[in-house]
Amino acid sequence: MEIKSIAIGTYLEPELVKRIERAFPDLEVVYEPEILPSPRYKCDHSAPARKLTTAQLKNWIEKTSGVDAYFDFDWYQPEKMMDRNQSLKWIQATSAGIGSFMKRSGLDKASVMVTTAGGIHALPLSEFALMGSLYFTKSLPLLEKWKSNSHWERYTTSQLSGKRVLIIGLGGIGMKTAETFHNLGLQVIGLSRDKAKDRGSLFERVITKAELKTELSTIDIIIICCPLTAETEGMLGAEEFAAMKPATILVNISRGQVIDQDAMTAALGDGTLLGACLDVFNEEPLPHDNILWKMPNVIISPHSASTVASENSALVELFCQNLSLIELGERPKNLYEAVRGY
Predict the structure, then answer these.
(1) What are the pLDDT tens digits along the chain (342 aa)?
(2) Which of 34, 97, 211, 324 would you label with 17, given CA atoms 20 to 30 Å apart?
(3) Is the whole model's pTM more than 0.85, yes or no?
């Protein structure tokens, strides 16, 4: 596959665009920062479109219609990317979890190669999972309550080491999270479609979805890292929460739809869950009147746990690695497969 031109469909810092140009001096790069959506924060790849003139929009369409590849999906009517450019060969996404977007846009049926950002966000998400686990293990909600009341009282806390953690989904994020918790002395259980795959000594055991309910009664912390697919949607529902031991800690760094949010809310109220650390929700932004906002045993993160200041640099590095592999005729990293949904 020959890639002679690319369009950058999301804002990148100019020095990062120059890095691509230096790495591939013969590559034609279409970059129009005055047309691209203006980022609301550093490394924002979902900013709303600008109010453009007819001439600006026409300019963007004309310049991007013949390119061979995209860095991120086109911000303008991504569902029509293939209609505007039927020769498009490759899209490098800036997110790992693109399955739902691919279906909504119809690109899952298009004859274009798509690679995800799988692994780019593994470290910050594993850190977020660790933060949430420590927050409840070390009784931070109680300490905050006591602090607000100027209350001093000696108490006994718990420790992570020795606890059993279940990590659902063993891709790049799940494996980094497993490594983090294993190194802190936890017993790590994994859940994966591929139970037989060799994953070294990180895991006490690996189970499949069919074994989930049986295993839940032994688990102290559940961390959801899997992609959202037809198989994982609603994976944790009322029956699964009923099977959990009291005071389980739940962390979701996947997608909100993997959990039955109503069942989770009930479990937070009845003591089944000690607490929940949530970066994702069924509806985003989380509605102002949602009861989760008022629950003291819930951490709410606005789907931002993966976004760190160095993200764009890492994404450009991945893009350059994949373009080099494509030029060599080799399989790029993180190739999206529509059948799997990730």
Answers:
(1) 999 999 999 999 999 999 999 999 999 999 999 999 999 999 999 999 999 999 999 999 999 999 999 999 999 999 999 999 988 999 999 999 999 999 999 999 999 999 999 999 999 999 999 999 999 999 999 999 999 999 999 999 999 999 999 999 999 999 999 999 999 999 999 999 998 888 989 999 999 999 999 999 999 999 999 999 999 999 999 999 999 999 999 999 999 999 999 999 999 999 999 999 999 999 999 999 999 999 999 999 999 999 999 999 999 999 999 999 999 999 999 999 999 999
(2) 97
(3) yes
Catalytic residue among 62, 204, 231, 284: 284
Annotated catalytic, 121? Answer: no
Name the catalytic one among 121, 240, 255, 311: 255
Q: Where do the domains of the chain lie, and which CATH numbers do they carry?
A: 5-119+308-327 (3.40.50.720), 122-300 (3.40.50.720)
* 15 in catalytic set: no
Does the active-site annotation cover 240? no
Q: Name the active-site residue from 21, 164, 303, 317.
A: 303
